[in-house]
């Protein structure tokens, strides 16, 4: 709602900035205009300056906001999640595309040099199911919690390159692992265990069957960054084969071609696969859309503000024609004249930057509070936005000032 209000303010300011010259010019008396006597009053000049300041304050605020959106999005896409997502594909087998060849297909893949590791799982990593979990001997006052869970084989966590903090991975050679569970740090903490290994837990995912904790993995994020790392648990089931997660070598396209070749040997159906990093990036679609919208409004706001400053520069150049002519006759260079009159516009932008800083700080802080994992506020976006505005203004006004400064001073000093 706050951003909507800012956009509304920008629109109203733009309309007022555009309407003002029309009302201002229509107020001139023809007789005075024909005599060249149409200079405005000081109050009108101040009003023009205020409009320019408001327009650039909004523009700089939006620019700062855009910089932080881009920083947060880049941080989200590049942050270490606690598992490997690059060069990983997930192959769909939820419709039994492989038939009875699920084990043979995985075994054949593991023989390929382009395949580093492969493991079956039931649910997509980003769409794991939840169920309650509690210690087996929990007191009546223990508050059970919802926990994400995933059915896997013995190589799934290895394929994701998840770090074990304690205990071990599942093993197909240990029959008792069908009654075992691996939890993350958050789950162990919520269960109240200082040393979770060997503890028994009850989970709705196992229909109240007790499971023994055999491993604790480091927290890894499989949700959007507006949430803390959730409690997660992994259960072992050898006949899990709804999806195969495959970690490939760095030569991605060649590796996929090899996987496709092996797939065709075991299935007549097309291979449906997704890149894990691409699927994960989709979690940040909202931020990507917001960034595009704010960027568009920022360009629009700067465009409207530059139109205003262009009109002000044209008006200033017209009003100061004789003064510029006198200064040239007295020996002033074009560069000196341009710098002298540009200071006024630079001053207006500096005021806008000072006004925009606290406003942008409030908006950005409010937005970043929606993320658990976020970038820190820094001075660079504030400075960069102000410099962009300053350069735009100097570039915009230079044309009129240089044109007036290079004109023949004799023409400027002719008496009406």
Kindly summarize this structure in a few lines.
The protein is α+β, with helices and mostly antiparallel strands and 416 residues long. It has helices at 2-26, 30-34, 42-78, 102-110, 156-160, 185-191, 252-266, 276-281, 285-319, 321-329, 334-368, 380-405, 409-413; strands spanning 88-92, 115-121, 129-135, 145-152, 164-167, 180-184, 200-203, 210-217, 232-236, 243-248, 273-275.
| Mass-distribution shape | elongated
What is the overall number of helices? Answer: 13
**Beta-strand fraction estimate:** 5-15%
| Biggest sheet overview | 6 strands, mixed, barrel
In total, the number of strands is 11
Radius of gyration: 33 Å
What key phrases describe this protein's structure?
single chain, 416 residues, alpha+beta, six-stranded mixed β-barrel, four-stranded antiparallel β-sheet, 13 helices, 11 strands, 53% helix, 15% strand, elongated
Write a structural description.
This protein has 13 helices and eleven strands. Strand 7 and strand 8 form a beta hairpin. The relative contact order is 0.16. The strands form two sheets. It has a six-stranded mixed barrel with strand order 3-4-9-6-8-7. The protein is elongated, with a radius of gyration of 33 Å. The model has no long low-confidence stretch (mean pLDDT 81). It is an alpha+beta fold.
């Amino acid at each position: 709602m706050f951003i909507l209000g800012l956009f509304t303010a920008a629109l109203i300011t733009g309309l007022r900035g555009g309407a003002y010259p029309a009302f201002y010019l229509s107020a001139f008396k023809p007789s005075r205009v024909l005599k060249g006597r149409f200079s405005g009053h000081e109050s009108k000049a101040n009003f023009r300056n205020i409009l320019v300041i408001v327009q650039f304050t909004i523009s700089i605020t939006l620019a700062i906001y855009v910089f932080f959106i881009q920083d947060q999005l880049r941080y989200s896409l590049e942050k270490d999640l606690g598992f490997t997502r690059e060069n990983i594909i997930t192959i769909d087998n939820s419709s039994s595309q492989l038939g009875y060849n699920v084990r043979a297909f995985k075994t054949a893949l593991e023989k390929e040099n382009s395949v580093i590791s492969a493991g079956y799982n039931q649910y997509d990593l980003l769409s794991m199911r939840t169920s309650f979990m509690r210690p087996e001997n929990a007191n009546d006052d223990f508050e059970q919690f919802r926990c994400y869970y995933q059915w896997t084989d013995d190589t799934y966590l290895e394929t994701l390159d998840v770090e074990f903090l304690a205990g071990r991975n599942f093993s197909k050679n240990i029959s008792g692992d069908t009654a075992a569970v691996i939890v993350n740090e958050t789950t162990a903490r919520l269960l109240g265990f200082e040393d979770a290994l060997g503890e028994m837990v009850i989970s709705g995912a196992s229909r109240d069957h007790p499971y023994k904790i055999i491993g604790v993995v480091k927290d890894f994020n499989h949700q959007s960054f507006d949430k803390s790392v959730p409690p997660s648990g992994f259960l072992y089931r050898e006949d899990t084969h709804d999806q195969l997660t495959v970690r490939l070598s760095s030569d991605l396209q060649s590796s996929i071609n090899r996987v496709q070749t092996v797939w065709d040997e075991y299935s007549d159906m097309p291979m449906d696969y997704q890149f894990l990093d691409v699927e994960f990036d989709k979690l940040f679609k909202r931020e990507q859309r917001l960034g595009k919208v704010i960027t568009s409004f920022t360009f629009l706001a700067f465009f409207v503000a530059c139109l205003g400053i262009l009109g002000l520069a044209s008006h200033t150049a017209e009003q100061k024609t004789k003064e510029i002519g006198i200064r040239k006759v007295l020996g002033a260079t074009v560069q000196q004249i341009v710098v002298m009159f540009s200071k006024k516009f630079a001053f207006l932008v500096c005021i806008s930057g000072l006004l925009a800083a606290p406003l942008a700080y409030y908006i950005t802080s409010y937005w970043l509070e929606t993320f658990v994992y976020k970038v820190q506020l820094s001075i660079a976006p504030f400075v960069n936005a102000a410099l962009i505005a300053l350069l735009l203004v100097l570039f915009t006004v230079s044309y009129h000032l240089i044109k007036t400064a290079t004109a023949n001073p004799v023409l400027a000093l002719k008496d009406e």
